[in-house]
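Thread: "does anyone have the structure for this chain?"

Original post by V.I.:
We have the sequence but no experimental structure in hand. Need at least a predicted one for the grant figures.
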Amino acid sequence: MNTWQERLNEAVKNDCRSKRELAAALGMGTQYVYQIIQGKTPAAPKLFELCKLLGVDPVYVMTGEGSPEGSGDLLKVLADLNADNKAILLKVARGLADSQKEHSAP
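Reply from O.Q.:
Generated one for you, tokens below.
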């Protein structure tokens, strides 16, 4: 699959819900998901919400890098956190990334 629309369309096809049901779950008009797949550029927050609904990694959808599932579980958890907990988790993740870089440096 070459384009992000194709990757998103594949995720929509693999979901048991219709495009209309997905659009309704996003609080958007009935044609919203169809329009995105056809080339309409979505707002980033809505695209992330759609990816969360579909259980796919938005980075994979947009870039083709990684796997469809990728960080989908992590994104689901993040979406449910309040702002304070998101800030704490971000600090922890940055610390882990820095530690990983230090241990993998030659």
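V.I.: this helps a lot. The first helix runs from residue 4 to 14.
O.Q.: and The chain has seven helices and no strands.
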